[in-house]
Design goal:
This protein is about 25% helix and about 25% strand. The longest helix has 15 residues, at about 35-50. Strands 1-3-2-4-7-5-6-8-14-13-10 form an 11-stranded mixed beta sheet, sandwiched between helices. By secondary structure, it is an alpha/beta fold. It has 2 domains: about 5-245, Zn peptidases (Aminopeptidase); about 250-315, OB fold (Dihydrolipoamide Acetyltransferase, E2P), CATH 2.40.50.630. It is globular and about 65 Å long. It has helices spanning about 35-50, 65-70, 95-105, 145-150, 160-175, 190-195, 215-230, and strands at about 10-15, 20-25, 55-60, 110-120, 125, 155-160, 200-210, 245-255, 260, 270, 275-280, 285-290, 295, 305-315.
């Protein structure tokens, strides 16, 4: 039996007696990010035991979205599931097979909560979609609803600008002669972008560092708050958080060589000052911050040609 043949896809759905929102909650889109898996299984047990009731609408839980990566205890199976997410008639990688199952499932819902964690230390945060716009990259008309949900997940930091920044990175890769995949803006489309493109609202909640024992609790609280905010349960509706911090991604920096290295152990949202040294290319070229801001998603283990870190600036979005 091949490794693929031992795997399967699994979701659990609950439907209330009254009509309402159709929510889907994902865990382990990346196989080493298990806080969402733990929280989802805890909430499923609460519903099945009668501790928590779904009174309206429906909720679908996917505890392990990428079973191959999860079985391997690593971020990816054959590739990053949260890139180039689209059904295909010619699946070549295991993540293509996931997409053929997952994308139709996402399209059956109108709200997505995707639970993740990150490589280095840092505080939890929510990734927002774009402002309302009629552009060609990611047109959207539901940012008010999306932001209202984000403010009730229980964390205080909010980040946007993902696909715009990714598209700018794609343009740079094209100019440098990158491969067709990495130079395609659609490669930046993941679960939330797919959901918005099909009429829904979608949030990624980064619950903390992968092994932070507090991360599953952050994910669990967010699920409860989302269910209450959307009136799927009879729990008290959560108030929006206060003392918020909003940041906007504006630049992605790729790792170009295996010997590119950081100057120190960066954590997401560490402050950087204009001109501050962030790292060094393999040939001795310095990589410096171009302005005051923050480093986000630093990945010292990034593969050459892939995202090494992002830079963010303050925003008035939230």
């Amino acid at each position: 039996m091949s490794e693929y043949e031992s795997l399967h896809f699994h979701s659990v759905s609950f439907t209330g007696l009254a009509p309402g929102t159709r929510l889907i909650v994902l865990g382990a889109v990346h196989g080493n990010e298990t806080c969402g898996t733990q929280a989802i299984r805890r909430v499923i047990a609460e519903i099945e035991s009668g501790q928590l009731g779904i009174v309206a609408g429906s909720v679908t839980f996917v505890p392990v979205t990428n079973p191959l990566a999860y079985a391997r205890h690593q971020r990816m199976g054959d590739r990053n599931l949260n890139r180039n997410l689209v059904p295909t008639d010619t699946p070549a990688e295991f993540e293509d097979r996931i997409a053929n199952w997952l994308c139709p499932l996402l399209a059956q819902h109108n709200v997505l909560l995707d639970l993740h964690s990150f490589h280095t230390a840092g505080e939890p945060f929510v990734m927002l979609g774009p402002d309302d716009n009629q552009g060609t990259l990611e047109p959207f008309a539901r940012s008010k609803e999306e932001t209202a949900l984000a403010l009730r997940l229980g964390v205080h930091r909010f980040v946007d600008g993902w696909l715009d920044t990714y598209a700018a990175g794609v343009a740079r890769r094209l100019a440098a002669g990158a491969s067709a995949r990495e130079a395609d803006v659609h490669y930046g489309v993941g679960t939330t972008e797919y959901m918005r493109a099909h009429g829904g609202i979608a949030l990624t909640l980064e619950c903390g560092q992968h092994d932070d024992p507090a991360a599953p609790q952050v994910a669990w609280r967010a699920i409860h708050n989302a269910l209450a905010h959307l009136r799927l349960t009879a729990e008290p509706v959560p108030a929006p958080v206060t003392a918020t911090e909003a940041l906007r991604l504006y630049q992605v920096v790729d790792r170009t060589h295996a010997d590119d290295r950081f100057d120190r152990d960066w954590a997401s949202f560490d402050r950087v000052r204009a001109g501050e040294r962030i790292g060094m290319r393999h040939d001795g070229t310095p990589v410096d911050a171009d302005r005051d801001g923050y480093i986000v998603f630093p990945n010292p283990n990034a593969l050459p040609g892939q995202e090494w870190f992002y830079l963010a600036k303050q925003s008035a979005r939230v």
